[in-house]
Amino acid sequence: MQLAMIGLGRMGGNMVRRLVQGGHELIVFDSSPDAVKSLAGKGVTAAKDIAEVARLLTAPRVVWVMVPAGAAVDSSIEQLVPHLTRGDIVIDGGNSNFRDSLHRADALQARGIDFVDVGTSGGIWGLTLGYCLMIGAAPDAFEHCEPIFRALAPPEGYAHVGPPGAGHYVKMVHNGIEYGMLQAYAEGYEILHASQDFELHLGQIAKLWNHGSVVRSWLNELAERAFSRDDQLAAIRGYVEDSGEGRWTVAEAMRLDVPAPVITMSLLARFRSRQQESFGAKVIAALRHEFGGHAVQAK
Known about the structure:
The protein is an alpha/beta fold and 299 residues long. The chain is built from 13 helices and 8 strands. The chain has helices spanning 10-21, 33-37, 50-56, 71-80, 98-109, 126-129, 139-152, 166-194, 202-209, 218-229, 245-255, 261-273, 279-292; strands spanning 2-6, 25-29, 44-46, 62-65, 89-92, 114-121, 132-136, 158-162. Strands 3-2-1-4-5-6-7-8 form an 8-stranded mixed beta sheet, with helices on both faces. β1, α1 and β2 form a beta-alpha-beta unit. α8 (166-194) crosses α11 (245-255) and α9 (202-209) packs antiparallel against α10. The protein is elongated and about 75 Å long. The mean pLDDT is 94.
């Protein structure tokens, strides 16, 4: 089927490639001409702007927006809407806040346009392995777009989880779980790395754990890959960003009175990773010196 992709970054570009491989016809646009140029070929038509994206599509139009959450999504939709008609479908496949998705769905529905939110997991491996798709949509919109989801996902890798907003809600919690899993692996490998009794090879241990261990997982397979290149990770700075979903998961847990200590602490650990030096740790050191005479280290 025919659809458009707005946003051709690491995820969007690979999704276009996978969709073309699946026999779909793509209209593409990105603010970077180089990104558009890299996808030129059979099955892909470049649009010069968002207005042309809509003009090149046959009604009912399907437009997949794959841009960073927040203002970029709103801007893309605002530029699209004047060129869309009743029955068209806008898909947001980024990591948007589910409450923003609820508002966007209501605003578009008032114009007779369906909004579909697709929580997308798979990263740079999605092109070859497929993407896990968590889809929030009205039943008719989901059914119309299902050939797209089938092409993008591996077998059993997509599901209609509820009405608009539900896809990004499920993806939010998915990413909160991911925070906790990553932190557990990080802490375990740091203990191994810090051992004073044994000189351990982390790549060897990661490979071992991927065969029969209860902690084997795709994430640990990626750890094995990383350690195989640099067992000490000496070339990497321990700075960890977050794209919002962990914060939103913790906020939702608090709103629902659900205890989520692992996800919460894993989020806070990311904040700590961004500090060159912790002022809070300085305060603790100073207080321990004041009440107990404990030694402090000079800077």
